[in-house]
Amino acid sequence: MSQYVDLSAYQGWACADCGQPLVPGSVDVSYLGNSFPVELLKCPGCGLVFVPEELALGKMVEVEKALEDK
Question: pTM here?
């Protein structure tokens, strides 16, 4: 899903919990028993994942609806 969001727009962002810079990495996203890897920003220290608003309200909503229709 990283092709749907330009993660470079978030360079320099830091973790709200521990203050470490966020880095791109693979994250497993699960919904209704389906799981798939997504490239998102995450904290290398505590593992907190940042989901950009345009991804959460855009492509992820489309995927949720498609899975619910199955």
Answer: 0.70
Alpha helices in the chain (DSSP H): 53-54, 60-69
- Pull the structure tokens for residue 56: 């959460």
Q: How far is CA 55 from CA 6, 27, 40, 50, 59, in A?
A: 10, 14, 10, 10, 5
The neighbouring-strand residues paired with 8 are: none
Domain that holds residue 41: 2-69
The tens digit of pLDDT for each residue in 1-43 reads 445 577 888 889 999 999 999 999 998 888 777 787 888 999 9
Contact 37, 26 (CB under 8 A): yes
Question: How many domains does the chain fold into?
Answer: 1
